[in-house]
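Support case: user asked for a sample of complex input and structure output to validate their parser. Sending the pair below.
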Amino acid sequence: MHKSWWKILGVLLLVYTFVVGLLIEVPHNEQLAETIRNLFFHVCMWFGMMILFIISFIQAIKYLRTGKHVHDIASRQYAGVGILFGLLGYMTGAIWMSYTWLDSNKSFYESFDSIAREPKLIGAAIALLVYAAYLVLRDSITDMDKKARISSVYNIFAFAMLFPSIWIIPRLLPSLHPGGSEGNPALNFKDASMNMRLVFYPAIAGWTLIGVWIATLKIRLKILNDQKLMQ
Amino acid sequence: MKKGFSIAAFMFLTLFANAKGEIDDVMKANGKIYVVIAVMLTILAGLILYLVRLDRKISKLEKNK
């Protein structure tokens, strides 16, 4: 394995997250109870997704500046792993909300009705669909250079769409989801206790490093595949 | 590689058999939360092992070029 120190670091950070994240004292909140520990897993998926999308965006710009296909491949694979993280974030969020947001006095459908209107969920869905369209767009163009150029330009647009759909509009609207009008949901120092932050930040780094590792594997595989096709 | 895996699994099992008493004490403390940790770490280890092997395989392919 080449350049493996950061892979080992990522694994160690995740082991730390899994062990300390379950054992550390957390603030008591009646509605959340122990599920507050999901901060180290669910929220980190979204964080990892954003960082992977930022890398994908940078690689797209690099491709447009240099015209080297390696950057295009990298851009595509980082976006792919970013989407995977986003889907995992969605799934874990669905489990989490089933036990914290659903109102037991109302029927499931009535309760779900209000949850389906959550601006954070809609915004995240829009962002993921915009990136899903990136994959569709890529596969619909057969010419290698055209594919790379058009999808790189689209990638920049998709990244720009993250600003309104995730970072701005959901924070302007009232929501059950934490992290609204009071500012940044994850980096706000008033939101999470010191103990939580002790695990939360290493957890973000650990999950992101694993995401980057998976993406680099896919990039190397794609490069090998392309070389084989050239021969 | 397969041989290595079965040896590792065997060592793991014997380790558990020998230290079962002490491990049981730890595992049953604190509302059995350590059981959850053990399960999660096992899954994590499995996934990481998968990634490491994939990484090695790709490295090998890159060297053959």
